[in-house]
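Field log, afternoon session.

UNIT: design team B
ACTIVITY: writing a sequence onto a fixed backbone
BACKBONE:
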């Protein structure tokens, strides 16, 4: 199994989702990370299958949120990136 959050773009999506002050939709995540809508959708599908994100209905739009597992993983990834920058 390939772990998708080891790659740069899925990490960018997860780290953006850590900012819980915003309501994240697929289109807003796409704009924030500089990815195409389709690529963002594919990354989110992989993260959903791993239990890292979940979708919440907000009218006609799907809001994207990190699960508890996702919050833990995003925190660990953030710590790993900080440790690598120090080295």
């Amino acid at each position: 199994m390939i772990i998708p959050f080891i790659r740069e773009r899925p990490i960018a999506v997860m780290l953006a989702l850590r900012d819980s002050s915003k309501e994240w939709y697929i289109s807003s995540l796409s704009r924030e990370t500089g990815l195409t809508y389709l690529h963002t959708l594919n990354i989110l599908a992989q993260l959903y299958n791993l239990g890292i994100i979940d979708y919440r209905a907000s009218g006609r739009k799907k809001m994207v949120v990190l699960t508890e597992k996702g919050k833990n993983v995003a925190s660990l990834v953030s710590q790993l990136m900080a440790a690598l920058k120090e080295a």
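LOG NOTE: Residues 28-86 form a domain with the Arc Repressor Mutant, subunit A fold (CATH 1.10.10.10).
NEXT ACTIVITY: expression trials, pending approval
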